User: Fold this.
Amino acid sequence: MPKSVLVVEDEPNIILSLEFLIKEAGYQVRIARDGEEALKAVADDPPDVILLDVMIPKRDGYDVCQTIRANPAWKGVRIIMLTARGRAAEREKGLALGADDYVTKPFSTRELTQRLKQILN
Amino acid sequence: MTPRVLISLTFAALIVAVVAVAGWLASSAGGAGVSAEAARQTALLYGSGATLALVAALAAAWAFLDRRLAMPLKMLARDIETAAHANPDHAITPAETGHLAELTAAAAAMMRELADARRRAADTVVEASRDAEREKGQLEAILRDLNEGVIVCNLNHEVLLYNRRALELLHVTGELGLGRSLFSVMNRQPFLHAVEILTDRIGREPAAEKGGSRMPDVTQPFMATTADGRTTFEGRMRLIPDADDKAAGYVITFDDNSRRLAALGHRDRLLSQATEGLRQRVASLAAAAETLEAFPSMATGKRQAFEKVVFDETRHLSERLDALTAEYRELVTGSWPTTDIYSANLLNGVVRRLRDDKGIPVVMTGLPCWLHGDSYTLVELLHHLVQRAREETGAREFDIEASPGDGRVYLDIAWKGAAIPAGQLDGWLGATLAGAFGALTARDVLEHHKTELWSQTHGEGFARLRLPLPAATEAAAEDGRRRPPSRPEFYDFDLLRNQRHPGALGRRSLKSLSYVVFDTETTGLKPSGGDEIVALAGVRAINGRILTGESFSHLVHPGRAIPERSRRIHGITDEMVAGKPSILDVLPAFRKFVGDSVLVAHNAAFDLKFLRLKEAASGVVFDNPVLDTLLLSAYLHDHQALHTLEAIAKRFGVDVGARHTALGDSLVTAAIFLRMIEVLEARGISTLDQALAAGDSMAEIRARQRQF
Assistant:
């Protein structure tokens, strides 16, 4: 069974590319457009990886990440955080709250798919 | 009674007595008969003559004495009085004859001296006034020409001096008014904070590090607004020392936000680069993308060219954006007045405010370190965060600690209970900080320090708020300075071997005990050879944390000169210990501070020897159990040859300062000791008895090695 990826993003133009790239790489993709939708999607069926944007409506990416980590049932879910801001302190905050990796926008699509593959194997 | 009156009375009495005696003789002389009557007549005649002659002689003597002695004495007295009180140039009338000539001459000489001395004093006063006037003139000229506003205040914040520029900046028309409160024109909080930070720094400044004066040569930056809140200033405050090196007042220099204006200019340029500068690239990108879309059946070679444009332009845009972002980030912090801050300084401010204003107990823990930021807004932020954490989690007590790591310093607020969810924490950051000027929010403070804040669980049942801040620039430079060598290992291990058995305390776990970690600085390495303590310090450690705020630190007068060789190690000079209490006065206070705690020191035998040698004289006995980090290190890393404080600190990842100070080394030793406890436990040493035994065994081995 193919691995599953949940993309949490509210920017349609980037969703387009991410969805296309991840499918091409051979994974299942679901999309959530805000923090609450993301948590609902995880509750429905925990994905293998979440590509989690920090700046999303309702509950921000840090909040979603910490909430997922608070539930031991979702321990196996890998989280890659995406952000348009790239301060060292933000990266550290993401990792401190339980993210496995942290990618700054703009990113190279090749590098992102590589990290995705790395984390799934 | 004046001499003259005395003389007059004496002579008058003598004359009356002579006349009386003569009268009595006359009435009682002779007997019966004619011959007797003749004899009586004769006797009366001679008697009268003799009496008259005697009275005349007495009168002459009286007149002589009066004119030659009494009168000149009286005149001399008048002259001296006149010269002393009225006219310093009044001449002493010389005596006519030799009898009093010496006295009057001496008096005249004395009066001349007096007159000279007075003239010299008057000249000095005139000269000094002229100097003061000249200096005042120079100062006024300098102040007038300064482009910065300058105000000098006493500690009651009353204005003592100001320059014209200060008036202009403050938009005060007319005079600011000497003796008026500074707070009638500026808002209060930033100044109270800056004074507090600076005075606190004097109190904590290890005297050893600053030569003779304890007044540190530092300024505190501040931002303030006019009392009406219309204008914002940036400035710096410096304390003015009085003769006793205590703060007597302060000078503030402040300026219009020229730096902010410069930053604004920079920001404008960046904005223009981000808009106009990127336009060309976006245009090429858009044209290529649109062409590709409009002509789907383009020949493959052509299509690849367009795709290359899209790819190249995208890469350029990404790179340009990265560069702009980096520059912009610098700008955000660059426009805010930041400075190197000693964490103990900063956290002390937070602890004090929370205790005094809100009655919230906060314990400062850990090894203080240097960080970089704006202390005023950071205090406000931490103050806000602890209050909110208390409201949200119900925790009653908090620990606050600064710890260095990876090029930055973490400020951690810790409590027993759950972590604060990120979403909730986010809500706190929008709140306006109470004491801050304007509408500064917690998020603004984070932005100015280009940092983030989060909460996470930390250890069993504990949680913390973590705020990373930039590490200090000065402290980094200080690390480059070479630390003087540590003292050699001290071999009098009997001191440690012959300890009183700790009894029930010995069975307690190392983690549960209360410790006082201490250190001394001394005049030399021979406690039994006349060397003495010049500084004694200790810090309390309990429950795996250093209670940074609970420390003991005293300079001690050693009762002898401090040799140059020791001075180079600890920097404490004879001047610095002048007037400090003797060790006999300090020890009882230290005994009280130690209480029943377990004592910990590095190379404890050395420090202990000094304390033991004073037991008889001071009556203070330290019979507490003692642990030695040197011996415990030898136990844990017996393969390691070096057990200096520096070497062990490096092994345990503890940062040591550049200079030996008793308090600094106590803190470092405490940090090492707390980490050691973890390792000791892993090696099966978990009680005090076991740790003492481990130390003893090392003492034996090292004593034996020493014999060879």
Notes: The longest helix of chain A spans residues 12-24. Chain A has one domain: 4-120. DSSP finds five helices and five strands in chain A.
